[in-house]
Amino acid sequence: MSEEQQVPFTSQQDMNQQDDTKTGDPETINVKVVSSSGDEVFFKIKRTTQLRKLLGAYANKVGKDVNTIRFLYDGTRISETDTPHSLEMEDNDTIDVMVEQVGGYSS
Amino acid sequence: MSRNDEDRAAVVPSITILSRTISTTSSDSSFPKLEILAQNIRRWFVEARISLPSSSAEPLPPSEVDKWVEEINLVYGQRAEQHWANLVSGNLESYLLSMREQKQLHHLEEFRKQLAQEFQDVAVLCDAHGYSSLSSAIRDQQRIFRRVSLEFIAMNQGVERTTHSWRDTHPQTAVVLLEQVRLEYYQTMNLKSYIGFQPFQFVSLLKSKSGCYQIPRSLWNDGHIIRPSDLDAMLAMKWLNSSLIDAFISKLNVKFSGPHQHRNVAFFETSFATHYVYPGTKPHHTLTNAQGSMKYRPLKALRDRFTDGNVTLICPVNASNTHWFIVALCAGDSFTVNVMDSLHGSGPVFPPYLTAYENLKILWKTILMTWFKGSEIEDREWKLVVHSDIPRQRNNSDCGVFALMYMMHLGYGPRINNECVPISYRLPEASDDLAGIRLLLLEELLLEHVDLN
């Protein structure tokens, strides 16, 4: 179900850096993107990087137009210019993905 | 009466001479409020486009006032008839004009209230300074203004109601208008020059290059954007999508932000419903952080509405990506989970109701534990109420429209078509399709501060 994307933990060094910086202001955090069906994709991203990059990468990965899916953090829509810092995201936080739903009913 | 008092009485902002400049104002500036009042009254009449009476009698005798009011009634009566005829013939220009007039009328009514207060203040001020004749002259003018302005407002409210009823009496016209709006939308024709003014964002939206519209930011809205395809669904009698529904949620949370008869309402977006109500893809503890405080931001933004315990939580639920219905948890007066469904309502219980019912109970408990730790948390008997006697869809496309209207009605009161719902928002008991309501919703969505109430 889950796989790692972008900059996965490829080396012990990465993990060490993570630990080193935990007490201060870590430069990067790990983010889990969860689809409505429960599929998970992991990303590692700098706190100051605009989330546009992550959203684009995810959309690309799942083969959808980035404009047709919504990304939510704590229930709030993420805009392209948001950063983990501006949203006060913490390490291992979750981003929820919502695809457009429709309804009218025809039998 | 002193000489000075007489002088001042002469500069009373007489309604009959409002079009003239009050140049006779004495050098004594102890009544700047009088001057401001005079200017404002002039402005009111100009904005209301009411011609002043021909008589310049001072003050205007009651018979002249009657004549004046009759004239106003006559002029507006004729205009209303013309307007109605244009509207029912599906004239887009008339339609846009009627929206503009609605907005103007609400503004004039607010302005009128403000002037009534100003009149009062000035009269009291005169009394306090012992200028009794001045004060009584002001009160005379106040009476005339009151009579004329109230008549005007009442007349226009009548016109407004009449011009709204065409939605019910001429459903085909609504279809024609929707189609015209849609065409304008695609051709991005310059409506501004067409109708000579730019009444609303509605028109600017039609003209905007991208066709995208951003719902104004508020506590409950994080910059939601509606795209042409979303609007097209509304205009072309198609199924509504979650973007459009969510746009309304933002609007509804603003519209019903205060308590009404001690009852608070809180509307939740489609994503909230998917995660926590139906199908319920996330456990409720994810609403809070490790320390047990609320972290789900839309819920945090609605915190105030939970304080006095009488609150209704309203969620649009999507079933199988084909159908919208509404669930509402009412806590306070009653403890019920209500279902308003334009399709399944009267048959056997639709399975998603039960899931939503269970999830809403857990949600309520989570809210109580998070925000009201001290309060007693008892396991209540929650009643599931499926509203079966409500207007329902007769076609294969309107469930989203019904869902939006059910939510709107729940804002006004606990039942569909309750007595607090303005006439123009009521749902017809039987209607083949809701073209008129679609137009109404479009106005509700795109026009700023238009309340048809």
From TrEMBL, chain A:
Biased composition (Polar residues): 1-18
InterPro entries: Rad60/SUMO-like_dom (IPR022617), Ubiquitin-like_dom (IPR000626), Ubiquitin-like_domsf (IPR029071)
Start and end residues of each stretch annotated as Disordered: 1-27
CDD domains in alphabetical order: Ubl_Smt3_like
Protein name (Swiss-Prot/TrEMBL): Small ubiquitin-related modifier
Boundaries of every Ubiquitin-like domain copy: 27-104
Pfam families tied to this protein: Rad60-SLD
Taxonomic lineage of the native organism: Eukaryota, Fungi, Dikarya, Basidiomycota, Agaricomycotina
UniProtKB/TrEMBL annotation, chain B:
Molecular function in Gene Ontology: deSUMOylase activity
Alphabetic keyword roster: Hydrolase, Protease, Thiol protease
Any Gene Ontology biological process: protein desumoylation
Keyword Protease: yes
Domain Ubiquitin-like protease family profile: 224-410
PROSITE patterns reported for this sequence: ULP_PROTEASE
Signal peptide (residue range): none
GO cellular component, one term: nucleus
Source taxon at top rank: Eukaryota
The keyword Hydrolase appears for this protein: yes
Family: Belongs to the peptidase C48 family.
Protein name, as recorded: Ubiquitin-like protease family profile domain-containing protein
